[in-house]
Amino acid sequence: MKTAKAGTMESMDCLVTVTEAAAGTGIKLVMDGASVARFRTAMEKKVLETVAAKDVRDLEIEIEDNGAIDIVLSARVECAIDRLGGAQ
Amino acid sequence: MLRTMLYLPGNNPNMLTRGHLFGSDGVILDLEDAVAMVEKDSARVLVSRFLEQGEFGKCEVTVRINGIDTEYWRKDLDAVVRYRRLDGIRAPKVDGPETVKVLDEELSRLEDKYGIEQGHLKLHCLLETAKGIWNAYEIAKSSPRIEAIIPGGEDLRADLKTSRSDDETELEWARRMIVFAARAAGVEPLDTVFSRVTDDEGLRKEVEFIKQLGFSGKSIIHPNQIAIIHKVFNPTEKEIANAQKILAAAREAAANGQGAVSVDGKMVDMPVVKRAEYVLVRAGLAEVK
Asked: Are B189 and B178 in contact (CB under 8 A)?
């Protein structure tokens, strides 16, 4: 399966890893890190909105968070998906 | 006012989030030298999301794109021009009016594409080669978009086949040229960065020097440099009081049909009035005319 990453583990950033998933498996999201315990619901919502905006239906997403705000979370997910798709 | 323009690395969420809080007059979201080649795409996405949803307070917001000799600059512009929070583009390695023409045409095309009014985006041109400095005036007047021209630092030294000296003798002529060209063309001369971020006294001396040459402000790479630069550029209370006195005397003279007037034994003529007006502009007490 193809994998792509975006982001870093620097302060206020997050490291996003996306992996291709078989058709029909849906979005599988795993999150860990600094803000996840407190903001899991808001973070999940932001990630799923970003994935939907990219018109992706089947994907594994792993996020290691180090205090990323929603703008950063969204940008890193978007970039990882672009990289998976081969966008430069 | 553009006394301080703070570079924020385009792939650094921490600085992009907090950069506007330090009190600089402007921020430069950097897609060029501060971003590794393999991260150009992620920086472009991050900067565009910040322009769309981020906070920049009252800062003038510009994006430094990659040079037009790279494969990145068109993608950089396409990613950022659509956002209204963007005030302008800082363009590197501008060698002559032909570079400005290329940028101007692409900006116009994208403004049209994204429904932004024509000419909304300003251009800050970095003149980082001997040829760019030589063409400074032609560059400065080559488009109504141009708001500022800026001399290069390290790139210019490399092109001049020289190196950095403590007193920066190697940049002195380029700085004077930039001021003359900018003032002649009616745009702002902004200075290059001071890279010794812990040398406060060195920075203060350099800012006093470039202010005396006629620069309007300076590019910066560390928030600690802001207060030092503002202190040099801000008029003192004595300068403000004197300027107000001169302008009051000039107004009174005009009302009485007098041409020239004297304040504290010194003749006040038009250049003195203009300088006094500029003091109040720098103090934030008057608008630029």
From this structure: yes
Picking from B40, B45, B71, B85 by the largest number of A CB atoms within 10 A of its own CB, the best residue to mutate is B45
pTM above 0.95, yes or no: no
Q: Which domain holds residue A73?
A: 3-84
Amino acid code (one letter) for B169: T
Q: Please give the residue of chain B at the shortest CA–CA distance from A86.
A: B41
E strand map for chain A: 3-7, 14-20, 27-33, 59-65
pLDDT digits (tens, 9 = 90+) for B75-98: 999 999 999 999 999 999 999 999
Average pLDDT value for residue range B273-277: 89
CA distance B120 to chain A (A): 25
Closest alpha carbon within chain A to B42: A79
Do A12 and B13 make contact, defined as CB atoms within 8 angstroms?
Answer: yes
**Which residue from A10, A76, A82 is facing B14, i.e. has the nearest CB?**
A10
Average pLDDT of the segment spanning B39-61:
96
Q: How many domains does chain A have?
A: 1
Which residue type is seen at A60?
E
Size of chain A, expressed as the number of residues it contains:
88
Which residues on chain A are in Cβ contact (under 8 Å) with B41? 79, 82-83, 87-88
State the amino acid at position B146 in one-letter form. I
State how far the Cα of A29 lies from the Cα of A13, in Å rounded to an integer: 18
Which CATH number covers residue A33? 3.30.230
Which residue segments constitute the domains of chain B, with CATH numbers given?
Answer: 4-233 (3.20.20.60), 237-282 (no CATH)
